[in-house]
Amino acid sequence: MLCFCFVQVLSHAAAAESSSLVFLCIHRQHYDFLESLAPQLKGKVLVDVSNNLKKNLYPEANAEYLQRLVPGAHVVKAFNTLSAWALQNGPSDANRQVFLCGNRAEAKQAVAETATKLGFSVLDRGSLSAARELEDFPLRLFPEWRLPLLIAIGLSAFFFFYLLIRDVVYTYVVQGKDISFRIMVSLANKVFPIVSLIMLALCYLPGIIAAILQLYRGTKYRRFPDWLDRWMLCRKQLGLLALGFASLHVFYTLVIPIRYYVRFKIGAGIISQIKENRTSEFDNSIAWRGDSYFSMGILGFCLFLLLGITSLPSVSNALSWREFSFIQSKLGYLTVFFCTFHAYLYGWDRFLRPSTYKWFTPPGYMLSLIVPSLVLVFKLLLLLPCVDRTLTRIRQGWERCDPEDDSKKTLLT
Amino acid sequence: MLCFCFVQVLSHAAAAESSSLVFLCIHRQHYDFLESLAPQLKGKVLVDVSNNLKKNLYPEANAEYLQRLVPGAHVVKAFNTLSAWALQNGPSDANRQVFLCGNRAEAKQAVAETATKLGFSVLDRGSLSAARELEDFPLRLFPEWRLPLLIAIGLSAFFFFYLLIRDVVYTYVVQGKDISFRIMVSLANKVFPIVSLIMLALCYLPGIIAAILQLYRGTKYRRFPDWLDRWMLCRKQLGLLALGFASLHVFYTLVIPIRYYVRFKIGAGIISQIKENRTSEFDNSIAWRGDSYFSMGILGFCLFLLLGITSLPSVSNALSWREFSFIQSKLGYLTVFFCTFHAYLYGWDRFLRPSTYKWFTPPGYMLSLIVPSLVLVFKLLLLLPCVDRTLTRIRQGWERCDPEDDSKKTLLT
Amino acid sequence: MLCFCFVQVLSHAAAAESSSLVFLCIHRQHYDFLESLAPQLKGKVLVDVSNNLKKNLYPEANAEYLQRLVPGAHVVKAFNTLSAWALQNGPSDANRQVFLCGNRAEAKQAVAETATKLGFSVLDRGSLSAARELEDFPLRLFPEWRLPLLIAIGLSAFFFFYLLIRDVVYTYVVQGKDISFRIMVSLANKVFPIVSLIMLALCYLPGIIAAILQLYRGTKYRRFPDWLDRWMLCRKQLGLLALGFASLHVFYTLVIPIRYYVRFKIGAGIISQIKENRTSEFDNSIAWRGDSYFSMGILGFCLFLLLGITSLPSVSNALSWREFSFIQSKLGYLTVFFCTFHAYLYGWDRFLRPSTYKWFTPPGYMLSLIVPSLVLVFKLLLLLPCVDRTLTRIRQGWERCDPEDDSKKTLLT
Asked: Where in the numbering of this chain does the Pyrroline-5-carboxylate reductase catalytic N-terminal domain appear (chains A, B, C) (predicted)?
C-alpha cells in the first residue's frame, strides 16, 4: 500500500544526487503510516504529488497535512499538475510546466533541478500555503468561462426561439408556407451576429458603469460592488466568445451564394423578370448602402480578430500595459462602433415599414442594437472634455472633497 | 586561430564582474590547443558556444570533451542555440531564450546573469550531460513533423491521381470532353477535404487502439507497442496538418461562386430553362440537406480551429490537464462527428446511383469516410456503460487478476 | 505626502518575513525627503515602483537616483510595469510578468519571492543600470510598429487616390457615369492587395540588399549601414501588417458574390444575352487562367498565415533557429512567389490593351508588381550555384583577401 517511487528516468549523474529526494505517490488517506517513519525521513525532501478527487474534501491541503505529520522533513508540493502520460513519457506540448511550492528554498531547489533535468520548466509558486491552490488546479474546468458561457447559451436560446416564431412559425401560420429549412443557415446566421454584438457590448459596458460610478463617488478609492468586479474579470472570456460567434457569422454569410435556396431564388428572379419583360434600374444608393454594410462588417471583424490575437497569453505578455490598454480599449471601442454601424446599415429604413413588426414584435437586429448603442452613447458622453478631465483627475488619485475617511488613501496611492 | 572573445556589449558594471568568464568561439577540432592553457584556465568559467555541422559527428558532446581537456575549469554550454544575428544585434523575437547547462551551479549563475543583462531569458537545462541535446538543437529541422508530412503528401498524391483518373481522364475518354481546367480548383477541393478528414480521424484512431489494447490486456501497466507510441506522439502534428488542409478546403469552397466556370454554368442553366420553357420547383428536402451540409461543415471547422488554437504553446500552458484533455478529447470527437456527418450529407443518396461508380471505382468521398466512421463506431462502443466502467477502472490502476509479474505496479501507481 | 505602503495582500507567513521590504510609491520629486531617513533605511530593501509621465525627463533613472540618495539601502526596481488594476486585483492575463532589477542578489530574491507569492511570474533584468529601461517600458507605445505603420498608411493613401482618379473620376469625366459606390468595396479591394504585396516584398528586399552588400564587400565582418539595420529590424512588423492587408483582401474578395452590384450585373448580363439571342461559348483557357489565379492566391495566403502563426512569440520560441529561418526564409520566398504569380495571372494580357492605360497611367496592379518581381529576380540570381557558394563561404566567416584591418575578426568569429 505504501510505496516510495524513486523516479527512474533520471540521467545517471542526476540519480546519484537525488538520493535524498523521496517522491510520495500515495493517497492522502494512507499518510498516517508516515508518522511512524518520521525519524528516517528527517532532513529528507518529501515530494508530495498527490491529488484529490474533489475540491474542499479536507480542511487543509495534502502537503500541509503531510508537513504536520512529518515536521522534520522538508515537504515540497510538485508534479501534481502533470498528467500520468507526461510523467511516463516526458514533457509533451501540453505539459511542460511544473508548479512547485514549499517552505524551504533548498528543498525546492533540489526538486526544481530534478524537474529541469527531466525537461520540464519549473514555476515556483511560493510557500507551502500555495499547496491548496496547486491541488485544486488539476480539478479546474474553465471556472472563469462558466458565466460567459451561460450568458452565451441563454442569449442564443432566447433569440433562436424568438426568431423561430417570428420567421418560420409566422410564415407557416400566416402564409401557410413551410420554410423550416431556413433554420439551418438563415436563422443561425441571424442568431450568431445578434448574440455576438450583444456580448461584445457587454465587454465594454462594465468599464462605462465603473467610470460613471467613479464620477458619481468622486473618488477611485472605493471598491466596486462585487457583481461589477466579477463582470470586469470575465470581460476577456465574454469577448472571446463574442469573437467565436462573429466567426460563425462570417462563415455562414460567406457560404450564402453557394446555397441551393439562394441560387434558386436568383434564377427564379431573373426568369420572372424576363417573362414579365420588366427592366430593373440600377440603384446607386442601394449599392452604396450594401457595400458600406459589408465594409463595416469586414473592418469590424478584422479589428475583432486583432483583439483576439492580442489576448493570446504570449502576445499580451510581450505588450506593455499602455499598449495592451490601447488595443483593448481604443481599438475595442472602434470595433464596437464598426459592428454597431454594420447592424444599423443592415436595418437601414426597415424600422419604418409596418411589415417588419410581425405579430407586433420588433425584429432581432433591433434588440441586438440596444446595448451597443447605449455603450457608444455613454462612451461619447464620457469623452466630453469636461467629463473626461474630471475622470482623468479621479483616476490619477484626486478626490472630490467629501468628508470621507482618509484611511483609504494610504492603501494605494 | 584561437580566440577568446570577451563580449563587449555588456554594461560597464557588468563587464567588471565578468572578467572570469571566458567565451570560447572556436571549432571543436582546435580544442586540443586548450590543453596547454589548462593552468591559466583553472577556476575560470569556460562558456562553450560551439556547434557542429552534423549530428553524431563525435562520440561525446563538444562541451563534455572540453571539460575533459580542461578539468580545472567550469564548462558551461550556452548561447549555441542563438543565431549569429541575435548575438550581434541583441535578442529579437525569435531568439529570446538562451539554454544553458553545466555541472557547477555558480558557473551557470554567472553565465545566466550575463545573458540576463544582455536581454535574453535563460533556461537551465541541468548538468553538462544535457550538452549533447543542446548541441543537436540548432541542427533540428522539424523531426516530429516528418512522419505526419509524409502521410499527408502520400495521401494527397494518391487521391490526386485517383480523382484525376476518375474525373478528368474518364470524362475525356468516355465523353471526349477536355475538363482539365478543373484540376486547379475542383480537383484540389476534393483532395484537400478527403485528406483532412482521414488525417483528423488518424489523430483519434491511436487513442481507440490504446483503449482496446488496455481492455484486452486488462491492465495499463504494460507499455504499448513502439509503433503505437510513436503514432500517439505525432497526433498533434497530424491534427495541425489536417487543420491546414481543412483551411484550404474552406478557402477553395468559398471561392466557388466567383469562378468563371460556375458563373457560366449558372447562366447557361437559366438561359436553357427559359428557352425550353421549363419551370423548376423549389425542393424543400434539397434545401434542408444542402443547408445542413454547410452547417455541419462550418461548425466542424470552427471547432477544429478551436482545437488548433488551444494547441498553441502559450494557450495550452495556461490550461490544466483536465481542461486540455476536455478540449482535445471531448471537443475533438465532436469535431470528428461534425466533419464525418458533413461528408455523409455530401454523399447523401449518391451511393445508390450506378453512375457514381465510374470504371467501377468508388468516389473519393466514400474512401475518406472509412477511417472516421470506424473511429466513431468504436468510440461509441467504448462509451457503452459496461465497457466504459471497466476502462475507467483499468486507467485508475485496477488490474484484471492475471498471474502477472507485480513489479510493474510499483513503477507508477 | 510621504507614504510607505506595505502591501497588505500578502499571505500571513509571507507578511511576517517581508517586514524588511519597503515599497516606495511616491513621485520622484519627493524623493529628497528620504535623504534624512537614510539611517533608518540602512540595510532595508527599498522597492521603487515609480514611473515618470514622460521619457528622458531626468538625467538618471528614478531607482538610480534613489540609490544615490540612500546608499545604505538595497534599491530594487520592480512592479512599475504593472497596472494599478493588477496591483489591486492580483495578476490578470495581461499582467502576469513582473520585471525587476537591482544590484544586490539577496534583495532581488526577497522581492521576487513576494511577487511569486502574489501570483506573478518574475523576470530578472539584471543590475540597477537596467532601471531606465524598466521605467521607459510603461511609456512604450509600439515604437517598432511606427515605421511599418507609416509605410502602410503612406502606400494606402497613395494608391487610394491614384485608383480613385483612374477608376471613379475617369469614369465620371469621360463617360459621365457616377460609380462612386465602388469606393467602399471594389476600390478598397484593389488598394489592400496592392499594399499587401508591396509590403510583403519589402520584408524580403533588405535581406537581398544585405547579401549583395556582403558579396560586394567580400566579408561579413563589416556593419551594414544604419538604414539597412533599421529596415531589417522591422521586417516582422512589415510582414504582419502585410498579412493584415492580405486578410482584408480575402474578406473583400469572398464577399463579392453577395454584393447587390455584382448580382445586378450578372442578372443584367443573362437577360441581355437572352434578349439579343447571343450564345457565349465556354472558354477553356479563361477557366484555366481564372482557376489558377484563385489557386495561387489561396496557397499564397495560407502560407502567409503560416508565417504569421510562427511569428507568435510562443511558437517561435519553440522553434530552433534553423526551423525558424526555414519557415521565414524558404517558405517566405515561396509566399512571395505565389502572391506575385497571383498578381501576374490577374493582369494576364491586360498590359497589351491600350484601354488599360487610362489617362496614360498604368493600372495599380502593375505598380504593385515592381518590387516583388525585383525581389524574385535577385533571389534567383543569388541562388545561382557560383553566387550561392561564395555567399555561403562569406557567411561562414571566409573573407576575400583584402588588406583590411583584422581587428574586426576578433569581435565575433
From this structure: 8-52
